[in-house]
């Protein structure tokens, strides 16, 4: 048998001739609402984590865990009568880096690389216009005269001949440098050193191709994550922030 008031639910439990009176100080309707509205927040930036903890968390009961791939939050670990509210931010790379990762390691034709470079912001690639100009020369090559020559810095140059008989020199740098944020809404915006490799054609009717790689990408990712964790600790200095595992 159950009796209810506006503020307290009263439940009588009968056990072999005895009656036990159990008081539940939270109205049953409210308890059901809480149980049905357990929340799992999927966040997309570090600032979203900070804003959520400051608004929905508590200094005494919120717990924050971080790893190399994500930040996880328990907003109130003192809750015992319903599932805990959680929030997760899986580190997401920036749109700029995502664009570059689409071309890393790919065998790019001249037009593909030129079109890609033209879509970038002016300040994203050092000496962008000069690079585009030299890459365009790959399209007009009909004959490569002589061997590819590499200087002490690894830059490559080659003499070529066009269909109209005009000859010229095509030179490409061994390294190109780009500056961009690593993580979405992240403050870490380093300059990345990319390696550019010119692939010689294997047949007379083929054009040279270009492959771009970023050997130090993992280091830049690790540095960006560390920057985010440092920012988290600085923004929430009194909260419990613990290193965890992936």
Strand order of the largest sheet: 4-7-6-5-14
Q: What's the average pLDDT?
A: 80
Fraction in helix: 25-40%
Shape: elongated
* Uncertain stretches: 1-15, 17-26, 30-36
The rounded Rg comes to 30 Å
- Kindly estimate the percentage of residues that lie in beta strands according to DSSP: 25-35%
Q: How far is the N terminus from the C terminus?
A: 48 Å
Number of strands: 14
**Largest sheet: number of strands, sense, barrel closure:** 5 strands, mixed
SSE arrangement, N to C: EEEHEHEEEHHHEEEEEEHE
Number of discrete helical segments = 6
Structure description:
With 246 residues, the protein is an alpha+beta fold. It has two domains: 1-37, no CATH class; 39-246, no CATH class. It has helices at residues 28-36, 46-56, 95-101, 110-118, 128-140, 217-235, and strands at 2-4, 9-15, 18-24, 40-43, 63-66, 70-74, 86-90, 143-150, 156-161, 167-172, 175-179, 191-199, 209-213, 240-243. Strands 4-7-6-5-14 form a five-stranded mixed beta sheet, covered by helices on one side. Strands 1-2-3 form a three-stranded antiparallel beta sheet, with no helix packed on it. Strands 8-9-10 form a three-stranded antiparallel beta sheet, with helices on one face. A hairpin with a 3-residue loop joins strand 5 (63-66) and strand 6 (70-74). The longest helix is centred in the C-terminal third of the chain and has 19 residues, at 217-235. 14% of the residues are buried.
